[in-house]
Amino acid sequence: MFLSALSGAVWLIETRRLGVARRMLSTPSSTREILLGIVLGRWVITLLQSLLIVVFSWLVFSVDWGDPLGTGAVILAFSLVAVGAGVLIGTLFASEQQAGPIGMIVGLVFAAIGGSMEPLEYFPSTMRKIAHITPHAWANDAFNSLLTNGGGLASVSLDVAVLCAYAAVLLTLATWRLRRVLTT
User: Fold this and answer.
1) How many domains does the chain divide into?
2) Which of 38, 76, 97, 155 has the maximal Cβ count within 10 Å?
């Protein structure tokens, strides 16, 4: 989910390069509405992808995702983080050739450090602490609580709160940069 949300950076750069963003600004829509549309559009795509992953893995592999409210909260929060990161990367680079590889590297490094490639339990204690600089570690902790410990929404509330804080910071930076990029 995170990697595909980061690919939204390439889409955002392409809309600027093709002049779509400039044409959107010439409409009666306010800059705020355009920014909201861009972010919400990317978020809906990320949520649909997440839903597809959950439903497919449940139907085909009988994955028990645990408490639906807890799982939903983690997915909603982590998808906001992913969209914020994708939009931010899309505003920091001028070409698709720059943003694509950087987004992929950022996504893979965060996934590796955050325990998405190897469970955090296998990390040394110092590395487990370092891992929590990434949103991935918080999401993995939450899913671990839901899937292996039978936790519910209450057991993942701290993880979800931290993910929401990441999302708030990334989305604030992303929309600030996006407004500057679109209006200058």
Assistant:
1) 1
2) 38
